[in-house]
Amino acid sequence: MNYMEDIEKYGQDVADFTISPFETIEMLHLRTKLHEVSHQLTEL
């Protein structure tokens, strides 16, 4: 998995105010995935 691509896509979605509700749901799923990865990387 390339997390940089996921982060860039999430950033583009957040900045785009014309996305559809379906794209918003996809964006929220992506944010959840990135949050879980961030938690795994910082957990010791």
From TrEMBL:
Domain of life: Bacteria
Protein name per its UniProtKB record: Uncharacterized protein
Organism of provenance: Ectobacillus funiculus
